[in-house]
Amino acid sequence: MSIHHHLDAASLMRYAAGDLDPAFAVVVASHIAMCDECRQAVRLAEAVGGACLSDMPEAALSDGSFTRLSRMIDAAPDTATKRRPVEATPANDPDGDVPLPLSSLIGGSLDDVPWRLVVPGVYRHKIELADTSSSLFMLKIGSGRKMPEHGHGGTEMTLILRGSYSDSMGRFGPGDVADLDEHVEHQPVVDSDDPCICLVATEEPTRFKGIVSRLMQPLVGI
Amino acid sequence: MLKVLRMEETTEDPGPNTDQARHEALITAVADNRDKSAFESLFVRFGPRIKGMMLGSGAGEDLAEDLMQEVMLTVWRKAALYAPERGSVSTWIFTIARNARIDRLRRQPVQPFVDVETVSIASDAPSAESEMIAGQHGEIVRAALQKLPQEQRDVIDLAFNQFMPQSEIAKKLNLPIGTVKSRTRLAYKKLKENLEDLR
C-alpha cells in the first residue's frame, strides 16, 4: 500500500503518552496498523516514554510488595501468553481493507457495515464508544460527491479505507490519513469510481458553512 | 521463522553490559523458563519507577501501588510477547503502564492499543527498520532527550512522566494549546534527527 498522508508528530506523541481521546485513538491505531512509517514513528515516541521511565525517581513500595505479587502469581494458573503471529487485517476480512483496531468495532468487512442514508449519496455509520466527548463514525460517499465545505470546531482525523477523495491538500487514498487542526477549511470531492469509505474522528460537531449546509447539518449529523 | 531470525539478531545487539542487554536477558528467562528470580530483578528495577510515574500522574498511594502490581503481573504473563526489534524493555514496560492507566484511571478502552501491538508483531520483518528500532535502546534515546531545548523538554516531561493531558500542559505552562503542539512536534523532530546523528 502506498501511503502519502501521515499522522502529525503531535498526534503520534499524544497516542504514545496515552493522551488521545478514544475516538482518535481508534483512528490513529487503525492508520498505524496500515502504515509502516507511522508504526516506526510511534515506536520512537514510545521510546521517549521508555527513557522517561528509566530516569524516573524511585518511589517507595509498600512492605512485602514483591511477596504479595509472587503469591498472586503462584495462586493463579500460569496464563502465560504465547507469541502467535496475527495478520494486520482479520482473517474474515475478504478485501483486506479493515485494519485490526477497527475490526474490533465493526467486524471484518466494509460490506457489512449497517449504513444509514443521510442525504443522497452520503451514508453514515456511527460507532458508539464509551467515555468519549468526541465522535467516531464511518462515511460512505458516492463518486463525484462533494462533502460540504467546512471549517472545524476542533481537530478532525479522517482515515481512508476504500476509494479516494481530493481536496486542497491533495489526493487521499486507502491508508492515507488527514490529521487536521482546527481552522482548516476543506472541501473533499470523491474522485474514485466507487464510493469512498472513510473512518472519521471529530472533536466537536463539524460546522458546515453556508445556509444549505447548515440546513443539512442536522441530517448529516457530523 | 520470525523467532529464529530475532534470536540471531539480538546476539549481535548492544554490548552485554548495557541495561537493555541485561533487561532483555531477564525477560527471556521469564518468558522461556518462568524464572522467578529474573522476574524479581525486573520488579526491583521497574516497580518503584512505575509507581513513581503513577504517583506523579495523580494516583494516590494505594492506587499507585496497585497499578504497579498490575503492570508487573502483565510483564510476568506477557513476557513472551516482548519483541526487542520493536524497542527496549523499558519502552515495552512503559506501554504496559500507559495502557493500565488508560484502562483504570481514564476508564477508556485499551483495545486499539492492544490491537496495534498485536499487528506489529506479525508484520515486523527483520529489516533496516528493525535495526533502526534496535538502535533506539535506552541510552541513545536518553542522550537525545537531554539535548532538547528546555522548553521542549518541559512539555515532554509533563506528557510522559506525569501523563498530563495536552490541555493541562497548556494551562500549567500558561501557553496556548497550539504552542504546546508545536513544541511537541519540534521535540519529536529534534529527537529523530539526534538519533540519526548518534547512529
Structure explained in plain terms:
The complex is a heterodimer of chains A (222) and B (199). By secondary structure, chain A is α+β, with helices and mostly antiparallel strands. Chain A contains 6 helices and 11 strands. The radius of gyration of chain A is 21 Å and the shape is elongated. About 2% of the residues of chain A have low confidence. Chain B has 2 domains: 124 residues, Rna Polymerase Sigma Factor, Chain: A (Orthogonal Bundle); 53 residues, Arc Repressor Mutant, subunit A (Orthogonal Bundle). By secondary structure, chain B is an all-alpha fold. Chain B has 11 helices and no strands. The chains are: A alpha+beta (222), B mainly alpha (199). The interface between A and B is large, with 68 and 90 residues. Chain A: This is ChrR family anti-sigma-E factor. Chain A: It holds the Pfam family Cupin_7. Chain B: This is Sigma-70 family RNA polymerase sigma factor.
Task: Produce a short descriptive summary.
The complex is a heterodimer of chains A (222) and B (199). With 222 residues, chain A is an alpha+beta fold. Chain A is built from 6 helices and 11 strands.
Report the span from N to C terminus of chain A. Answer: 29 Å
| Total beta strands of chain A | 11
CATH third-tier fold name of chain A:
Jelly Rolls
How would you sum up the global shape of chain B? globular
Radius of gyration of chain A: 21 Å
**Beta-strand residue fraction of chain A:** 15-25%
Low-confidence stretches of chain B: 1-15
Largest sheet: number of strands, sense, barrel closure of chain A? 6 strands, antiparallel
Order of helices and strands of chain A: HHHHHEEEEEEEEEEEH
- State the secondary-structure class of chain B: mainly alpha
- What is the CATH architecture term of the largest domain in chain B? Orthogonal Bundle
